[in-house]
Design goal:
731 residues, 8-stranded parallel beta barrel
Length: 731
């Protein structure tokens, strides 16, 4: 039964909907797909948005017609190609055998099916039963060349999410080259938008930036080979007055871990044109006759109640229908990582003292970071040699893992599988595995180089090495790192006319490797990392349910980083650790309470030498660990609300609310103190207005409506970098 997708054959209108949203488009002249509406649910569409026919100067018309009032240049469309006299940035460009890029995509047919098909070789949202979503496939064709474009739309029943992707098939007889193929195009009429994106840098990721959409083309993206620290694969278009809790906003998250592009264009008649997909920089895909190409998926949502509602839709779809791990709903363990405690200077005996202290403090997992393999005493060697460093572990890694397990802790291990060092046995044996351009010396970064993951033999070698370590080391957790971006883009395994495929084939190879590893070891908890948050995207979450948010562990820096991250990604995906002071990245000194509250606002752990702490700090660790165990499920899987923005004020505040609205945790932070402080209040959100709540610290009773409408005064403090946790229980 097509209860989520309807087709009006008389008007040639498709209507995708659930109880919250509607998405409507039609088939117009020349087989053109015309976008009509995306927004709050409407019960039925009666044709009132048929696009007005206007003779637009310098906007051409359909081939073979004298009608000047219909133009693909001005009609809001679902998908467009270069060469069809649409002068906006196109969704696809195809270089034909004769050298032209002419393409005229016309509607051919449609199919509606229950559930959601998988995307071959790519991460994507999924269904657990066919009744929770429906999928519409619209086929467009270019009659001359036989190219067919399947536009895939899936609408979910219980979450305000529609997914979009495109499959291109060459049913003709000639080879073509895809020079651009976007996953989504969406055109808006009569909207005055702000764009919201998440730019950043290493150790300074995902800072919310908001600016008005003006005339011309603006492009947000990455050409670094990864989704990158510099520009997360997310964009929102919001009405100018939209805030956290009111106003319209459209959100778009790209489930892809490579080069991406979000193009926003405001045209000459104030229409906004959006195109999202693989970045066309250095992209060219040879599509032989009979072959096909599948694009990655875009998750899109609409909220009429501001940014928080948008975020909650993304949180739900990523947590529930992107993440596949057995740990999807599990309590994530509290860990201590040895990196900032020892860096490369450790051996088994030194690490045992940290393990002993972790046991005493109630910590649940010890993670061994970089330096355990090959002959690695610094970052200049051994990447690619995933064998145990005998000088540090003379009895083998399994012997140390047994010690960790005997202490009642789980054992975690760091890898950087995609990299290779010149000083490695793998390079000496297989120099061809290193990605480099013939005749040119490759460029180092952190004195390491990139393995060519477009080659099957490289993937097989890595799978074999990593599998052996995981089996022999009794590993419970893996931190999968990547500490540079791609360069020297060339694969000796591909002919010269396929070198434009290397960026994407690298990502496909990475996905294949992660699919094999995570499937072979389903009981291992995997955490993604790329110098912190350099590959923090929904695509990676398909394989690894949590990601190291940033190499910057400073609590004050983390306010902005974690705030921006929460715009798209669920808290269960976000990891944060308490580290030593002065902080190793910023030199800042913050209280243990502030460091703890920032880190406990995510999947929690420690990044310091437990053996060098004062007894007072150890006592605080015990208190934090005990506290987090009480609130862990609420933090990791509760409903998250942003209350105060660190971008706009001297304060930050956010809160976590259980599904039944009876369990509440609020975190507030103040960066700088003032001699003559202004009075500020914190108002809560998402509570039951009919329920009374007890403050568990003071035992005072407040109505849910009081806490949301009146709020409470923030404490006046005469100290920088302060924080407070509030816990409320519905009674």
């Amino acid at each position: 039964m097509n209860d989520l997708i309807e087709f009006d054959s008389k008007r040639q209108v498709f209507h995708l909907h659930n109880r919250n949203i509607s998405y409507i488009f039609s088939v117009e002249e020349g087989g053109t797909l015309c976008h009509l509406y995306f927004g709050r649910r409407v019960q039925k569409y009666h044709g009132e948005l048929k696009y007005p026919r206007v003779d637009r100067g310098f906007s051409g018309n359909l081939p073979g017609t004298l009608d000047r009032t219909f133009s693909r240049d001005t009609l809001p469309k679902e998908y467009s190609g270069a060469g069809e006299m649409d002068y906006h940035t196109p969704a696809t460009i195809v270089r034909q055998e004769n050298g032209s890029n002419a393409l005229m995509l016309k509607y051919k047919n449609y199919k509606i099916e229950d559930g959601k098909p998988k995307l071959k070789g790519l991460p994507a949202a999924y269904v657990e039963n066919e009744k929770e979503a429906q999928t519409l496939t619209i086929t467009l064709e270019d009659e001359l060349t036989g190219l067919e474009y399947d536009l895939l739309y899936t609408v979910y029943r219980d979450v305000s999410i529609i997914t979009r992707s495109v499959k291109v098939r060459n049913t003709g007889k000639k080879t073509v080259f895809l020079e651009k193929v976007a996953s989504l195009q969406l055109d808006f009429v009569d909207r005055d938008f702000d764009s919201i994106c998440l730019p950043g840098a290493h150790a300074n990721e995902r800072h919310l930036e908001r600016s008005s959409v003006g005339y011309g083309i603006q492009k947000f993206g990455s050409i670094r080979g990864t989704s990158s620290h510099q520009m997360n694969p997310f964009l929102a278009l919001a009405d100018r007055k939209t805030d956290e809790f009111s106003g319209d906003v459209y959100g778009f998250a790209f489930a892809y871990s490579g080069n991406h592009s979000f193009e926003v264009e405001k045209d000459q008649i104030d229409q906004t044109h959006l195109v999202i997909g693989i970045n066309d920089y250095n992209f060219s895909w040879k599509l032989d006759a009979g072959s096909e190409f599948q694009t990655p998926e875009v998750l899109m949502t609409y909220s009429d109640q501001g940014l928080n509602k948008m975020s909650q839709a993304f949180h739900e779809i990523i947590r529930e229908r992107i993440v596949r791990s057995k740990f999807k709903h599990a309590d994530r363990p509290i860990l201590v990582n040895n990196w900032e405690a020892t860096y490369f200077d450790f051996n088994e005996e030194k690490l045992k003292t940290i393990v002993d202290e972790a046991e005493n403090l109630g910590i649940e997992m010890f993670v061994l970071d970089d330096g355990w393999f090959g002959h690695r005493d610094d970052d200049n060697s051994s990447l690619g040699d995933w064998t145990v460093y005998k000088k540090k572990f003379p009895s083998g890694l399994g012997h140390f893992a047994d010690y960790v397990h005997e202490k009642g802790l789980k054992f975690g291990l760091w890898f950087e599988p995609e990299m290779i060092s010149y000083d490695s046995e793998l390079y000496r044996k297989h120099p061809e595995y290193l990605m480099q351009v013939p005749g040119r010396r490759p460029s180092p970064s952190r004195n390491q180089y990139v393995l060519d993951l477009t080659r099957k033999e490289v993937i097989d070698d890595l799978f074999g090495q990593i599998s052996k370590v995981l089996k022999e080391g009794s590993v419970d957790y893996v931190k999968w790192d990547m500490n540079r971006h791609l360069s020297d883009i060339y694969s000796a395994s591909l002919p010269k006319d396929r070198q434009g495929e290397v960026y994407h084939r690298y990502v496909l190879g990475l996905y294949e490797l992660m699919e094999r590893i995570t499937s072979a070891f389903p009981d291992v908890l995997f955490e993604g990392c790329s110098g912190g948050g350099g590959r923090f995207d929904a695509g990676f979450a398909y394989y690894m349910p949590q990601i190291w948010t940033s190499d910057n562990t400073d609590a004050v820096s983390r306010l902005t980083i974690q705030y921006g991250t929460s715009l798209v990604y669920p808290i269960s995906m976000t990891t944060a650790h308490v580290s030593a002071i002065p902080n190793h990245q910023t030199g800042r000194k913050t209280s243990f309470e502030t460091r703890g509250n920032a880190a406990m606002s995510a999947v929690f752990g420690y990044e310091l030498d437990l053996t060098k702490m004062s007894q007072e700090d150890k006592d605080q660790v015990k208190e934090q660990v005990a506290c987090y165990k009480e609130i862990r499920k609420l933090i990791q899987y509760g409903n998250f609300y942003r209350l105060k923005s660190p971008v706009e004020t001297n304060q930050s505040a956010w809160m976590f609310v259980s599904d039944d609205k009876r369990d509440v945790c609020v975190m507030t932070f103040q960066v700088l103190a003032f001699a003559q402080p202004c009075l500020t209040k914190t108002k809560l959100f998402g509570l039951d207005p009919e329920l009374e709540y007890e403050n568990l610290e003071t035992h005072e009773i407040f109505g849910g409506d009081e806490l949301m409408e009146l709020g409470f005064y923030d404490p006046i403090v005469h100290q920088d970098y302060t924080s407070k946790m509030y816990r409320f229980k519905g009674i």
